[in-house]
Amino acid sequence: MQRTHSGRPALIRRLALAAALSVLLAATFATAPLTTQASAGITAGAVTVRVEGTKTTLLPATRVVLSTSRVTKNGVAADSCAGTSAAGALELATHGDWTASWSASYKAYFLTGIEGLSFPSAGAEYWAFWVNDAPASEGICGYDPRPGDSVLFFPDCYGKKCPKSTGVLGVKAASVAVLGTPFKVAVTAYSDARGTPSKAVGATVSAGGSSARTTADGTATLTFTHAGALTLKVTAPHAIRTEASVCVEAAGAKTCA
User: Fold this and answer.
1) CA neighbor of 68 nearest in space, from 111, 39, 26
2) Are the beta carbons of 128 and 6 closer than 8 angstroms?
3) N or C: more exposed end of the chain, with fewer CB within 10 A?
4) Domains located in the chain, CATH noted
5) Which of 66, 74, 99, 86 is CA-nearest to residue 26?
6) Could you please report the per-residue DSSP string of 115-140?
């Protein structure tokens, strides 16, 4: 997959911004470990927000219930986003730990940093925005997540020198595993604008001291040696990592809720 870009030259940047509104906040997969609500104006339905950095997960899958409170990042009330937008979801999930600069020409914010990881507006790297395993067709201020949506932010790159990505990884596995019993995990890679999955071959799946690589059918089998709550971590070269939660119990114990 060659991911969506935002290059340095003005013309390229205009084309990139038009094609990938994911980096603009237009003015108009996993169990969540945290649920956050705004103090007022709560709306029904929850969405999940995850932020991946260049080397580590900056924000694990975090479920938030959206609010009608507007979001302003530059102190100017007129430059605000609806709390029910993906920007509102990011605000709640990170407790406001993201930065953006205002574009007067686009009447929008340019997302520059999340959880301490920043990219200059003139550089080749930028923050990409995906919804439900596919590139978002709108900016995060213009897109209103639906209940159950999964919103993902991750570093992307535009330009000939950028490495070609193999996709955004997704993982499917049972939520409960049995101690000492083989546990199968399926890994997919989403690498086009429609979110079409393909089998991820050679991805590494690890948790609780057990590790395995996916085979030709995109699956890996792990055997856990101790019980408890674990996090499956899934990585692959030139791909956006993912993770999922699994509870390991002894045979017949039924200790996992």
Assistant:
1) 39
2) no
3) C
4) 10-157 (2.170.130.30), 167-249 (2.60.40.10)
5) 86
6) TTEE--TTSSEEEEEEETTEE-SS-T
